[in-house]
Amino acid sequence: MRGIVTFYLTYLLCLMLGIACVALVAYWNYSYRGGFAWDGSIKQFNWHPVFMVTGMVVLYGNAAVVYRIPLTWGHNKLPWKLLHAGVLLLSFVLSVVGLCAVFDYHNTNHTANLYSLHSWVGICTTALFTAQWVMGFTAFLLPCTPTTVRALVKPAHVWMGGIILVLGIVSCISGINEKLFFALKGNTNGTLPYSALPPEAITANALGVIIVAFGLVVLKILSNQIWQRPEPGYEEGVYQVKDRGFHDVFIL
User: Fold this and answer.
1) Do 73 and 4 meet the contact criterion of CB atoms below 8 Å apart?
2) Confidence of residue 183 (pLDDT cuts 50, 70, 90)
3) How far is CA 101 from CA 18, 28, 110, 192, in A?
């Protein structure tokens, strides 16, 4: 019982940090960057961080911890597999829309694409995410997939799941930092320089810290072995399961 209470407190913290991430990235771009539009202006660019933080980090992280919720244990796993895949699909769609926003803005304003380290990491993360979702759907949701294939694919799928979460966080915080360097130039555009730490810089820096905190809580939930979903046939009421190591934290 104590382990279950601790889990739900940690999960509540995860949800609160996720909501804070979405609220703060929307507030930053609405209040300091001029709001949102889809007209090729800088307001269109503002959709990019909102969709990437929401999709690549918050929804992705919450999809990853679905199997850790004790209320899902002892029930048919298929509905939770579908929920896991569905939330990840929504995460992927939002990420793609976020990429469309920035590419369209760059092309409209004749700005080069994919030249920064942030963009390289971001596009690689999205490519890995695409491969991960397709591999997961094919291996774990198609009834015709042989059990031997699932066993073969699972280690790579598990490992890549954790890597994508970390890369998504790296992409977001590097993008926040890059945006602040571009936007807060001091005398050249009438704003205070980033080094002076104006209110916008404090807001965006706080967003980056909360994103990292969210990721750490998600990884804590996933790596805690006593919070892993028990295998079929577990003893009712027993919360802790056998030690299977960190490589099984993204179980499908």
Assistant:
1) no
2) very high
3) 22, 17, 14, 27
Q: Which of 121, 120, 103, 124 is nearest to 112 (CA)?
A: 103
Report residue 78 CA to chain centroid gap.
23
Is-contact 165 125, C-beta < 8 A?
no
Note whether 44 and 87 are within 8 A (CB). no
Q: How far apart are CA 213 and CA 228, in angstroms?
A: 21
Q: How many Cβ atoms are within 10 Å of 151's Cβ, its own excluded? A: 10
pTM: 0.88
Q: What pLDDT score does 239 carry?
A: 39
Nearest in space to 39 (alpha carbons), one of 124, 132, 105: 105
Picking from 169, 159, 163, the residue whose alpha carbon sits closest to that of residue 58 is: 169
Q: Number of C-alpha atoms within 13 angstroms, CB side, residue 147?
A: 0
Q: Name the residue among 43, 49, 52, 51 with its Cα closest to residue 109.
A: 43
* The pLDDT value given to residue 41: 96
Cα–Cα distance between 35 and 44 in angstroms, integer?
9
Picking from 225, 140, 211, the residue whose alpha carbon sits closest to that of residue 171 is: 211
More confident residue, 130 or 78: 130
What CA–CA distance (Å, rounded) separates 212 from 165?
A: 11
In angstroms, the CA 207 to CA 115 distance is 24
**Mean pLDDT throughout 168-191?**
91
> Mean pLDDT for the chain?
89
Q: Which residue has the higher pLDDT, 243 or 3?
A: 3
pLDDT of residue 237: 38
Q: Which of 221, 237, 249 is nearest to 13 (CA)?
A: 221
